[in-house]
Design goal:
The protein has 222 residues and is an alpha/beta fold. 51% of the residues lie in helices and 13% in strands. The chain has 2 domains: 6-130, Rossmann fold, CATH 3.40.50; 141-218, Winged helix-like DNA-binding domain superfamily/Winged helix DNA-binding domain (Arc Repressor Mutant, subunit A).
Length: 222
């Protein structure tokens, strides 16, 4: 068994969904579900007592909004990293969640393996957004994902090893384009498009194309 499994608190008011999520993690010894909560107040109390590494939080709780739970957890200086598990891609909910400081926003139809990877990435300090919502965030990026850099020139000085073509590809990744779309738009082969995306992911030191898009938005390249 993993000596230090990632400790998880699941906050979900629907028992069937809660059990399903718990089962995903119980089948992998890299994780340990240390508690479950079906409402916001219970979640806050258990987080204060148990201090999980990760809190998987549903926004639609019966006693208080998920946003209030997030703010209460941070006000208590609980160091747990929060991942939203939502059935909705409502922009207000996404914006409010990210502004409140969550590390990831995941739509509930995510596959099991991807959810495990998201939790591992967030545990390491990464930010993750469901690919379905990234294109919608572009127009609101300054409010939702505050820019740390002021210009493309500054971004280039930090990531000077990105080629001009990779900049073009990165912008299309931010637009939510697939490798096939990128190939068609840039008149290159799909294999070449995939290679560019892989190079970008490696050079930006992120785990996937979604994190690359988030980093590009945050650092002001688009």
């Amino acid at each position: 068994m993993n000596i230090n499994p990632i400790k998880i608190l699941i906050v979900e008011d629907h028992k069937l969904i809660r059990v399903g999520i718990k089962t995903i993690f119980e089948e992998n010894n890299e994780f340990e579900v240390i508690a479950e909560a079906e409402n916001g107040r219970d979640a806050i109390n258990k987080a204060k007592t148990l201090v999980p590494d990760i809190i998987l939080l549903d926004l639609g709780l019966p006693d208080m909004s998920g946003i209030k739970v997030i703010k209460a957890l941070y006000e208590e200086n609980i160091p747990s990293k929060i991942i939203i598990l939502s059935s909705h891609d409502n922009m207000d909910e996404i914006s409010n969640s990210l502004s409140a400081g969550v590390y990831a926003y995941v739509i509930k139809d995510i596959c099991s393996d991807m959810l495990l990877n998201v939790v591992k990435s967030v545990h390491k300090g990464a930010m993750w957004l469901d690919p379905k919502i990234v294109p919608s965030l572009r127009n609101k990026s300054e409010q939702v994902i505050p820019k740390q850099k002021g210009s493309r020139a500054v971004f280039r000085s930090t990531h000077a090893n990105l080629t001009e073509r990779e900049y073009e590809v990165l912008k299309l990744v931010v637009d939510g384009k697939s490798n096939s779309d990128i190939a068609n738009l840039l008149c290159i082969s799909e294999h070449t498009a995939k290679a560019h995306v892989c190079n970008i992911i490696q050079k930006l030191v992120v785990d996937d194309r979604t994190q690359a898009a988030v980093k590009a938005l945050r650092e002001g390249i688009v």
